[in-house]
Amino acid sequence: MMNNVILDCAGKPLDLTRPQVMGILNVTPDSFSDGGQFVAPDAALKQAQKMVADGAAIIDVGGESTRPGAAMVSVDEEIARVVPVIEAIQAEIAIPISIDTSKPEVMRAAVNAGAGMINDVQALRVKGALQAAVELDVPVCLMHSQGTPDTMQDKPQYDAVVAEVSQFLMDRVAVCEQAGISRDKLIVDPGFGFGKRANHNLRLMKHLGDLVKQGLPVLIGVSRKSMIGKLLNVPMDERLAASLALSALAIWQGAKIIRSHDVGATVQAIMMTNHVMKVNDVG
User: Fold this and answer.
1) Is residue 225 flagged as an active site residue?
2) Residue 106 contacts residue 51 (beta carbons within 8 Å)
3) pLDDT at 1
């Protein structure tokens, strides 16, 4: 059973007694969906405020694109992108902020600026990241990925993707616990689209309950992703319906956080799914 139902994100609670939406706020010029739209702190703040009004429970700020083929940016550049935005949001909104980064220096700068969670696509494998997370003492989302953004979609291969992803994440959880990070501060993310072909993503979604059974909150990010484009042959701006379908399937299997660009619609999809799941079968 899951015991970390309310996470303390640097003094701001994230209530996981029910599923929640994490609003995506990319402050990058090249992210696959909204690159360049929210680079300026005032534009980013307005978008964050809109997401809060639409029902987001946490805002995820990212300063480096992790789309397939993306190039890395320097530590200084990433800090320069995210810190002013986090400071602006921290001053105006009450919900937690997470920092989407793998770099320990960015983690420290972001948490010092007001972020209350680390969302790491490399699961604290970058040198120094694990120690930074221990010292910062905020919740951490550990994501599975195969390869790096510039190479991850070249030739991803698995013998048994569901078991391998789950084992990787549980191994990282164990490493974190050994380093001094309490289990009740950890979230896991199977990493849809990160070093995975379409059939890998579909298997992971179909069997997401296997990961949920490990007892940690599960976060999923499928919003507008290329897997939808490849399977349905639809462009970026026509992927909302499929994103919502996948979100509902994830919630049905026990996922606790849905990371989304489209907060209002995703909140409604989650609420409707919850109504069905909780309906009284008597009568």
Assistant:
1) yes
2) no
3) 47
